Amino acid sequence: MNLHKFTDKIVQALTDTQSPSYRYIPMYDRQLPSVQKLKEIVDVIREIIFPGYFGNQLVTESSIQYHVGVNCEKLNHLLAEQIYKALAFEANGSDIESTAEEKARNFLVKVPEIKRLLSTDVKAIYDNDPAAKNYGEIIFCYPAMKALLNYRIAHELFLLQIPLIPRIITEMAHTETGIDIHPGAKIGEYFSIDHGTGVVIGQTTIIGNHVCLYQGVTLGAKNFVLDEVGNPIDIPRHPILEDHVTVYSNSSILGRITIGKGTIVGGNVWLTHSVPPNSRIIQHKAVEDLFSGGLGI
Q1: Distance CA 166, CA 173 (A)
Q2: Of the CATH numbers 2.40.30.20, 1.10.3130.10, 1.10.10.10, 1.10.3260.10, which one belongs to the domain with range 28-179?
Q3: Partner of 48 at 20 to 30 A CA spacing, among 11, 56, 97, 169?
Q4: Mean pLDDT within 112-129
């Protein structure tokens, strides 16, 4: 058999869109959002929020409005285009273009609030890390800021019910930093992640203000509720961390449980039950409570 006939058989097999062998890889015949363009969008937002730290141009007090203004116009154009492609992924209709433009403008309105929240995050990270020399070092160097910028962008896009794009943006940061935050999670102000590698925050997690997580922390689901055909149901299944909670490295907090205000969870703890405010959870105590049914306070 010559090479042409050999490859032709393979191509015929791979392009059989009716084959039951490939039933979980649906055919898609439109243009998806561009990962490269979304990276550009995140970079533009980074320049808007942290003027002077990123980008190729020097920003001064006299030129800051010009730079931010130009980047806001660029952001609106780029984002509307990508939102259009994302909306087309889930629906058809002549009004998709205008809907995309409206959602892009609605996101632009949220950028000042994203900047405010990130400012509180910078302060929280600085306060929790004696090694940090100044706020600028945190903005420019710390992986947690990269992850939180992407998350706070993605969260607002998630609230605007834009498909695909929020998840792509958080996965960009996940790839670069090892910090995995679902865009659906709700995170308050003054949020700090120290080191960060291996942190996982699930979709329905709720985190209050002044919360600090260390590397390897998982805020995950304990189990899933399934529908009548066996598919997972999207209901609240991740923890609630109230204000001023600290969770040390490699601890797993699982299920729809509440960690009360002011609680400290030590390292390497497996926690699947709620604890009241101002609790102190350490590994051996958590193990004892697992067998005794206590609260671990």
Answers
A1: 11
A2: 1.10.3130.10
A3: 97
A4: 97
